[in-house]
Design a protein that fits this description.
Blueprint lengths: L18 E6 L4 H14 L2 E4 L10 E11 L2 E11 L11 H5 L9 E6 L13 E15 L5 H7 L5 H35 L6 H20 L12 H29 L5 H15 L3 H11 L1 H20 L2 E6 L1
Parallel strand pairs: 1-7
Antiparallel strand pairs: 2-6, 3-4, 3-6, 5-6
Helix pairs in contact: 1-4, 3-4, 4-6, 4-9, 5-6, 6-9, 7-8, 7-9
């Protein structure tokens, strides 16, 4: 006998007037200053170091790194490290540990204790045992923050004008982030108010999808989950709850789209393909043909329908504004 799992009937009980809070972001002078620092980084020069033998905070290194973080193996042959910028480093504490060591270091051993509050939750609280080989080192020369720098950016003629344009850009980004947070919170409320069963096979596929995203994220940090001695079943169980919630949201949005007659025009699909083609620097018609062959075009249409249905949910929600 063949076992066939079918989707449960999705019954929508509540979707009109769902409560949500829309945060009104405020861009501070400190935010603008930080953004200008990032712009200066984009125009920074990197020169070969000739006058000293030890690394300094002004250096950017390319290193080979091997070892373990907890039970996770690390093996990267070309990790770039800015020793002066530790806010977003892939491995917390690594930049500081490499400051002041010989520029000619080969298989330099270091031990790190990753903080419990590390931004990378999958690494938090773990002990790292690593060896580092410096393959290249450059001194970073950051441009002065003045009118000449503003002209060099191509965005403004004066520093004052550059500050104004930078603030406007930050405000646009902050509004977009607040909108994304609002939509996520509203979808969660929608799921909570409309219980729906999810077939076990569908849950397992959802976990597969989340696991692949996790592997991709860790892989970008040089961590190969597949070769690590980790309990894969335990990881799957940790992902189960979020996978089920994600699937419930998708099923409910599909049902609401059917109920309200939400449709996606061909022009909408064409526009999304054009956006993706521009990002990949490819002709739109060729990418569309490729997507049509492998089924990606149907996935794009489905995602657009989900987005439009969520737009409808937001439009009919009861939204309260709050300052951040």
């Amino acid at each position: 006998f063949a076992r066939v799992e079918v989707r449960s009937k999705v019954e929508i009980k509540e979707f009109e007037g769902l409560p949500a809070t829309s945060k009104k972001p405020q861009v501070t002078d400190e935010d603008v200053a930080h953004a200008l620092t990032n712009k200066r980084a984009m125009h920074t020069e990197y020169r070969v170091i000739e006058s000293r033998e030890l690394t300094a905070e002004t250096d950017v290194l390319i290193v080979a790194i091997k070892g373990k973080i907890g039970d996770l193996p690390v093996d990267r042959s070309d990790l770039t490290l800015d020793l002066g910028d530790v806010a977003y480093e892939a491995i917390p504490g690594l930049a500081r540990a490499l400051t002041g060591i010989p520029l000619a270091s080969r298989e330099h051993a270091i031990e790190l204790a990753i903080p419990e509050d590390a931004r990378q939750k999958e690494l938090a609280g773990k002990a790292a045992s690593l060896t580092i080989t410096i393959k290249d080192a450059r001194e970073k020369l950051v441009p002065a923050l003045d009118d000449e720098f503003a002209k060099d950016t191509g965005e403004a003629d004066t520093l004052a004008e550059l500050r104004t344009k930078t603030r406007e850009e930050l405000e646009r980004n902050a509004r977009a982030a607040a909108e994304q947070e609002l939509r996520a919170a509203l979808l969660k409320e929608f799921v909570n108010r409309n219980p729906v069963a999810v077939a076990p096979a569908l849950v397992e596929r959802g976990i597969d999808s989340q696991l692949e995203r996790l592997k991709l994220s860790l892989g970008m940090q040089g961590i190969d989950v597949d070769s690590a001695r980790v309990d894969s079943q335990a990881i799957r169980e940790r992902l189960r709850e979020s996978a089920v919630e994600e699937l419930r949201g998708q099923l409910l949005l599909d049902a609401l789209a059917d109920r309200e007659g939400v449709e996606v025009a061909d022009a909408d699909v064409e526009a999304r393909v054009a956006e993706l083609a521009a990002l990949r620097d490819r002709p739109a018609h060729k990418l569309k043909a490729e997507f049509d062959r492998d089924g990606t075009l149907d996935t794009i249409r489905w995602r657009l329908r989900q987005e439009k249905t969520l737009d409808l949910l937001v439009k009919r929600a009861t939204i309260t504004e709050a300052d951040v």
